[in-house]
């Protein structure tokens, strides 16, 4: 188990944004009302159910804790060091700029070998230097100098920046050659001591989109959760129309160019030769960093499960015919396919992902929520066989939401949305206006329904250098709109699309992350490796090891210790309010992909469970300034006491002012 530290990652929200659309409670948009109709009882029932699924920890969710909104409260005395609860993130994402660390796309565990990790980090450093150079000195324009008066800003040459990037690259290559970086990445060079730092063998995504996992179990879980929709790799050409037919459940939803393909990737049947190491092999190549390649996989289980799930679906002879026609005609599958009745365009998905990486990576997390929700809803419909039943002409999703939440068996995160559809349908609620589709969507949305949300472009903090707040917020809205347009081109489902893929909902999902995310940090085995070298007993053996490793350390510089950094959203942890004197801390275990909240002192029954969002060693004013960036004035007991003390001091000096009055 790697030591892991966690901090709250709730991104800044502006205290100026007092006119934000508050999704929680009253002011909901009609779109969100469709998904989010709830009352206090259904909110409490939901959290009680989630807590039960976590083994009934000694806490409960209360709806208004000291004016801070929902919070967690201890239901019995909790001792210092005791685990308060443990849960798994609903979604998580390694930060785009952290891609120099090779980790499992799902559980964030470091993968490969220490040598490969070092080779990959160096490849990324090389790429970064080259990118910085290209940015500073745009191609074909090397003669222009910044500020020469007649060039576009974009084409100006930043001589200082170009020089710096060039020098850094030169310095790097003075310690380690291109060939050595390549050898480390490919496994041709083994380093001493690394057998003490065994890491899981990487398992690539079955489609070869470049995502890597620590096991076929993680690959399978990710695929089933949302990756089968979000994967950017095109389906492989297939000659198995029957398998294709099984996976296609709604031919009517597919456009004319739709090709439904087998989910099994034939390339994965090949022997373990082309490993994802190849992605790094070309040290210094621009594809070396942050990308992988298809390679061997032990994901037979994943494929079997997928095939089993496909074969249980209602088969579509039309889609089978389309697939057969395409493969016999061209032998190649196109980038568009259909899963559980959801149309996916892989090329459009790649465009969405690129836009997100270039603008706001939180769009990638939002896409996970959208895809996971669509999948759960579609699978629920398929499970109940409702898909073949005629739908009511008009969807009344608000009624459906109410119907779903009023069902005694309404599911929580772990349970199937199908149960809600079945229960609601059999209880006759669906007949009263709620369609099976709306009930399925509402049930599938439930894991996110009760989270604290505000619309992203309204809630986000305004940077200090922004002069026109309205214009700034308009630009963010535009950005979200562009992102949604790209996502909608990539995944669509006429049964649920309009209720989920609309700007208000999308903005609220992105805003939900802004307000609730938890930052995760997993320390690197590369750091541990260099520490182990450093701690060797002085002598000839250490000297020999250092001769080999020191140039690598010099080349990596401070990057040798960079941890994996990620962001995650959790159902129960996201209910924990901040305190400047917190009684709990959080830690995560990449081994079982859990986050644990631990008591850092004795907590009596009835006391609120709190974490710190900021550095609480700062003095009062600085803490307030940081928390103002988070969009709230801290109401914790420490701040309340310090504010009272400050008021008392001001009062005393005001009395002193009366004395000054003696000047009269
Ligand atoms: C991660 S959420 C915590 C759960 C939230 N109270 C809810 O209703 O879901 C963070 C939000 O809770 C509120 N909050 C958290 N700690 C607070 C504090 N110390 N004082 C005032 N408001 C706080 C703020 O509105 C903040 O944006």
TrEMBL record:
UniProt-annotated stretches for the region Disordered: 240-311
InterPro entries: ATXR2-like (IPR044237), SET_dom (IPR001214), SET_dom_sf (IPR046341)
Record domain SET: where: 57-614
GO MF annotation: an example: methyltransferase activity
Coiled-coil regions, chain positions: none
Compositional bias ranges of the Low complexity kind: 240-257, 271-284, 294-311
CDD domains: SET_SMYD
Protein name: SET domain-containing protein
Organism expressing this protein natively: Astrephomene gubernaculifera
């Amino acid at each position: 188990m790697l030591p892991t530290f966690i901090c709250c990652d709730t991104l800044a929200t502006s205290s100026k944004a007092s006119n934000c659309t508050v999704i929680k409670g009253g002011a909901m948009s009609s779109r969100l009302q469709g998904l989010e109709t709830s009352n206090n009882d259904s909110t409490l029932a939901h959290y009680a159910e989630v807590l039960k699924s976590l083994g009934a920890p000694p806490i409960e969710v209360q709806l208004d804790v000291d004016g801070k909104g929902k919070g967690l409260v201890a239901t019995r005395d909790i001792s210092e060091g005791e685990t308060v609860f443990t849960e798994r993130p609903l979604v998580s994402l390694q930060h785009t700029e952290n891609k120099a660390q090779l980790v499992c796309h799902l559980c964030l565990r470091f993968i490969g070998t220490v040598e490969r990790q070092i080779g990959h980090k160096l490849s990324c450093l090389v790429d970064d230097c080259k990118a910085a150079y290209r940015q500073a000195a745009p191609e074909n324009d090397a003669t222009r100098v910044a500020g020469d008066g007649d060039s576009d800003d974009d084409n100006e040459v930043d001589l200082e920046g170009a020089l710096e990037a060039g020098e850094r690259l030169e310095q790097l290559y003075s310690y380690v050659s291109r060939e050595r970086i390549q050898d480390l990445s490919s496994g041709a060079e083994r380093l001493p001591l690394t057998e003490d730092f065994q890491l899981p063998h990487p398992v690539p995504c079955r489609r070869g989109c470049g995502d890597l996992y620590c096991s076929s179990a993680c690959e399978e879980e990710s695929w089933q959760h949302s990756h089968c929709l979000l994967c950017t790799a095109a389906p492989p050409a297939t000659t198995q129309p029957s398998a294709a037919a099984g996976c296609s459940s709604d031919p009517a939803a597919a456009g004319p160019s739709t090709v439904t393909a087998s989910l099994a990737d034939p390339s994965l049947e090949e022997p373990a030769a082309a490993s994802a190491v190849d992605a790094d092999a070309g040290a210094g190549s621009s594809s070396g960093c942050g990308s992988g390649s298809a390679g061997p996989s032990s994901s037979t289980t994943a494929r079997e499960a997928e095939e089993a799930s496909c074969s249980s679906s209602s088969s579509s002879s039309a889609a089978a015919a389309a697939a057969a026609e395409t493969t016999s005609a061209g032998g190649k599958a196109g980038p568009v396919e259909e899963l559980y009745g959801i149309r996916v365009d892989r090329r459009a998905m790649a465009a969405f992902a690129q836009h997100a990486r270039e603008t706001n990576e939180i769009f990638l997390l939002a896409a996970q929520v959208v895809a996971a929700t669509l999948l759960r809803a579609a699978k629920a419909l398929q499970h109940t066989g409702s898909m073949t039943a005629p739908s009511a002409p008009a969807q009344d999703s608000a009624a459906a939401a109410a119907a779903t939440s009023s069902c005694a068996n309404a599911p929580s995160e772990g349970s199937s949305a199908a149960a809600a559809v079945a229960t609601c349908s059999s209880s006759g609620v669906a007949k009263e206006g709620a369609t099976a589709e709306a009930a399925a969507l509402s049930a599938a949305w439930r894991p996110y329904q009760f989270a604290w949300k505000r619309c992203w472009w309204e809630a986000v903090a305004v940077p200090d250098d922004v002069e026109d707040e309205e214009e700034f917020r308009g630009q963010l809205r535009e950005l979200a709109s562009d992102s949604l347009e790209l996502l909608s081109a990539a995944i669509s489902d006429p049964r649920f699309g309009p209720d989920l893929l609309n700007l208000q909902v999308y903005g609220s999902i992105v805003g939900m992350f802004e307000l609730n995310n938890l930052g995760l940090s997993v320390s690197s085995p590369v750091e541990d490796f260099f520490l182990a070298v450093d701690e060797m007993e002085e002598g000839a053996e250490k000297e020999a090891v250092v001769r080999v490793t020191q140039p690598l350390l010099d080349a990596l510089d401070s990057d040798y210790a960079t941890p994996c950094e990620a962001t995650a959203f959790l159902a129960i942890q996201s209910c924990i309010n901040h305190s400047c004197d917190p009684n709990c801390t959080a830690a995560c275990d990449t081994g079982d992909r859990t986050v644990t909240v631990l008591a850092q002192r004795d907590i009596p029954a009835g006391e609120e469970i709190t974490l710190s969002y900021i550095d609480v060693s700062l003095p009062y004013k600085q803490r307030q300034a940081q928390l103002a960036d988070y969009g709230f004035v801290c109401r914790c007991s420490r701040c309340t006491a310090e504010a009272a003390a400050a008021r008392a001091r001001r009062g005393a000096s005001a009395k002193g002012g009366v004395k000054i009055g003696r000047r009269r």
